[in-house]
């Protein structure tokens, strides 16, 4: 049960986040008429520091900081797939995000579907990209609330019953108001507090753990005894699943609308490249959270059945003085507010740009677009709260697992489209449909497990379902393109300035190759 000092620290940090949100309108103010670009992307004016804070705070969610150590607590080594996965994201962001952000800036694109519409001249393809993004984002948004509730419940900060639900609603209501008024600027300024609180609190917890156990060696030895030794190591049978899950998750992450929204807000591709180089600092943070899951196991923490994500909060409550424990819990709560705000903004922007304006009201003024986006963003948050209170936690987890598989199926249209326009939009549509259907079938068939066996016999190969579906997707897209070109089926006009096929040109001043 939380004491007064813990509660006071928790409320102080949450209050600080609220005060920062109020000042969001002062973040790079621009004297322009209201526009969707201004509300959703902060007028594309964020420099390297703010972009690093916002992008890192958006990618590394509160549920990540509870699910990874919870998985390490329950299963050992497989949990650490998140570390290579987030390492792989950095060079991908350096190449893909900077290139896509540059094209989006030149042509005024706000969403990935805008780019697809311009690249392929296909409204149906742009529509499925937008809807897939919204569909994959909504359960992810609900998981942020679940992350807050799990952490606060484990720390005794979350009251039982209706009182606890009111606390959660109050936390989210403040975020909703700030986001409604200031758009992306609100999570941008809160991300600064998130970074400070998370880095400081995690450093303190890790230092206390190492001091108590006498170093990392005894921590892993103690955890190995409780898990049974080999559980802290990957067996040869687990390695394909580990590798494909890390690769597939990295490819999927950069397709999520909230990550692209945070990237598009940067003031240029040079900023995005700098930020991509600095993102591993957040990965180190994630690795330490995974280590704390192992430490909770070594310390003999007994998490509730089916609630392994509570292991680290229980460890914090046991080891740390009340004020520092309150800081940790507040840091994770604020950590959920940043991605939740960006997710709601991204979902609303995709709806307005690629559904409302495209199919409902093509002549909507910029002011009306902003008003509709604000309403949709607020509705998304209310829907996430209703989802959390109305359904089981496992339902949100299952849908989020499917969401990762689904969002990966737009990779050919978006990421491959950055380097070649040769794929036919109708073939991409067919590939998307095959990937969505096969990926969903594989995950559901295995009882909502993202790792699925392929092949028959004594030792079938286990791989990530999203990557298997993506391979089918690409196969259909490439084969369909060849067939449609042979039949002479026309395609839409390319409105971007990207080459139609992958080429390598030479910079005259240096002689260096430049794709």
Automatic annotation (TrEMBL):
InterPro entries: Na/Glc_symporter_sf, Na/solute_symporter, Sodium:Solute_Symporter
Membrane topology: Multi-pass membrane protein
UniProtKB keywords: Membrane, Transmembrane, Transmembrane helix, Transport
Transmembrane portions of the chain: 6-24, 45-65, 77-97, 125-142, 162-180, 192-210, 241-265, 277-299, 319-352, 372-391, 397-420, 427-444, 464-484
Translocase listed as a keyword: no
Compartments in which it is found: Membrane
Highest taxon listed in the record's lineage: Bacteria
Family recorded in the similarity comment: Belongs to the sodium:solute symporter (SSF) (TC 2.A.21) family.
This protein's name: Sodium:solute symporter family protein
Lineage: Bacteria, Bacillati, Actinomycetota, Actinomycetes, Kitasatosporales
């Amino acid at each position: 049960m939380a004491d007064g000092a813990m509660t006071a620290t928790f409320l102080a940090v949450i209050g600080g986040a609220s005060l920062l949100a109020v000042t969001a309108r002062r973040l790079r103010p621009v004297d322009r008429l209201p526009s969707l670009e201004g509300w959703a992307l902060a007028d594309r004016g964020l420099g390297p520091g703010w972009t690093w804070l916002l992008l890192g705070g958006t990618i590394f969610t509160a549920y990540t900081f509870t699910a990874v150590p919870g998985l390490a607590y329950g299963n050992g080594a497989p949990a650490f797939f998140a570390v290579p996965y987030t390492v792989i994201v950095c060079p991908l962001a350096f190449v893909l995000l900077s290139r896509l952000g540059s094209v989006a800036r030149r042509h005024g694109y706000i969403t990935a579907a805008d780019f697809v519409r311009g690249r392929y001249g296909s409204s149906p393809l742009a529509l499925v990209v937008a809807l897939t993004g919204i569909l994959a984002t909504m359960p992810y948004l609900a998981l942020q609330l679940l992350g807050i509730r799990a952490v606060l419940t484990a720390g005794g900060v979350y009251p039982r019953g209706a009182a606890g639900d009111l606390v959660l609603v109050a936390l989210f209501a403040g975020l909703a108001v700030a986001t409604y008024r200031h758009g992306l600027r609100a999570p941008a300024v809160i991300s600064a507090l998130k970074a400070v609180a998370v880095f400081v609190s995690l450093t303190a917890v890790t230092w206390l753990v190492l001091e108590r156990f006498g170093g990392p060696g005894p921590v892993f030895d103690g955890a190995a005894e409780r898990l049974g030794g080999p559980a802290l190591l990957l067996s040869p049978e687990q390695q394909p699943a580990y590798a494909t899950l890390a690769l597939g998750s990295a490819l999927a992450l950069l397709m999520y609308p909230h990550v692209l929204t945070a990237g598009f807000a940067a003031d240029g591709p040079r900023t995005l490249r700098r930020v991509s180089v600095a993102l591993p600092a957040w990965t180190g943070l994630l690795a330490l959270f995974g280590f704390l899951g192992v430490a909770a196991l070594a310390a003999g923490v007994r998490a509730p059945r089916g609630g392994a994500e509570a292991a680290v909060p229980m460890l914090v409550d046991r080891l740390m003085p009340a004020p520092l424990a309150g800081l940790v819990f507040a840091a994770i709560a604020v950590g959920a507010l940043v991605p939740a705000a960006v997710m709601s903004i991204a979902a609303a922007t995709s709806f307005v740009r690629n559904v409302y304006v495209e199919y409902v009201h093509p002549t909507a003024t910029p002011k009306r677009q902003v008003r509709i986006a604000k309403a949709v963003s607020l509705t998304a948050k209310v829907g996430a709260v209703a989802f959390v209170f109305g359904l089981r936690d496992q339902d949100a987890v299952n849908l989020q697992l499917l969401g990762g598989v689904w969002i990966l199926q737009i990779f050919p249209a978006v990421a491959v489209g950055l380097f070649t326009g040769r794929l036919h939009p109708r073939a991409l549509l067919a590939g998307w449909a095959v990937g969505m259907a096969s990926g969903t079938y594989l995950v559901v068939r295995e009882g909502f497990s993202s790792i699925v066996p392929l092949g028959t016999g004594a030792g079938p190969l286990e791989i990530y379902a999203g990557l298997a579906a993506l391979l089918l997707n690409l196969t259909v897209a490439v084969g369909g393109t060849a067939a449609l070109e042979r039949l002479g089926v026309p395609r839409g006009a390319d409105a971007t300035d990207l080459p139609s096929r992958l080429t390598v040109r030479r910079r005259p001043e240096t002689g260096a190759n430049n794709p």
